[in-house]
ATP synthase gamma chain, chloroplastic
Amino acid sequence: MFSTLLTNGVPSKSHLSHPHLPKTRFPHFPIRSGIREIRDRINSVKTTQKITEAMKLVAAARIRRAQEAVINGRPFSEAFAEVLQSINQQLQSDDVEVPLTAVRPVKNVALVVITGDRGLCGGFNNSVAKKAEARVDELKKLGIGCVVISVGKKGNSYFKRRSFVEVDRFIENRGFPTTKDAQIIADDVFSLFVSEEVDKVELVYTKFVSLVRFNPVIQTLLPLSKKGEVFDVNGNCVDATGDEFFRLTSKDGKLALKRDVVKKKSNDCVPIMEFEQDPAQILDAMMPLYLNSQVLKALQESLASELAARMGAMSNATDNAVELTKNLSVVYNRERQAKITGEIMEIVAGSEALTPID
């Protein structure tokens, strides 16, 4: 019953392919059950509706906090990355090498795949895992080794079933992301890159755009990019520009959405920096903070996307439950009317049988 509601109420393709069935959202299949069974089914659907409605409200309450964390954290992480990239560009022009910015021939790549810990959120977890698996296949075709750092229970269970994907570590999320959670991942990435076990580190996560739009992206984490923007493996910028920001409000006793637009301020002038200390020492000291901020940003974006996906899935399931209840009520009333009509006909027939024949 619950899985039927989550798939828009369509039971299976074999049923839909039947030529004599009407093409509606909830096809009216011939019900062989009695009135009591239909009534029990209506009660079951109503109970499921209450559960999905509660899950939608819980996700809506949590997404506000997650959304604010994403919006408030982006300016710092982006400005911090821009400063480090400017320092790195100056150092490279002076032929100064820093371990975490060294660009060497790529033989092995580490993928940090961030998924959720829970299901019932549509295709959120599957889309991230599929994108990571496609990236692994792409690297293997190029003759490049790949190791996965899986973050999230759903991603862990996904990669455990696929023996052809090498997994370095499984990490579970613990509620809202914190700097301590990001530090665990950053330390693992740091050790892999500095020891030259991998030559490149990429983040695979879901970028939060709005409550109805979130896209899985691949972001290069190490080595530090020479440019002032963060690009994915295809050269497309994944910086947050012009994202839609939805505020949850109440209207007529129901949840409503108020749309705002957050625009990123562009700075065409490159700042002139003067360093009292050696820029290489500054970069070495700030790179761990850079790793932590970028990983924390990815965790926050992924959590906000997961909550938005769950709220949308539970909203659709609730709507399906309401529509299915209406259709079952129609069938119940018809069966009840047919039963009452049959009983009346039996009473009339019995009365006619007792009437004396003149």
Residues 7 and 171 are 30 Å apart (CA to CA). The chain is about 50% helix and 15% strand. The first helix runs from residue 2 to 6.
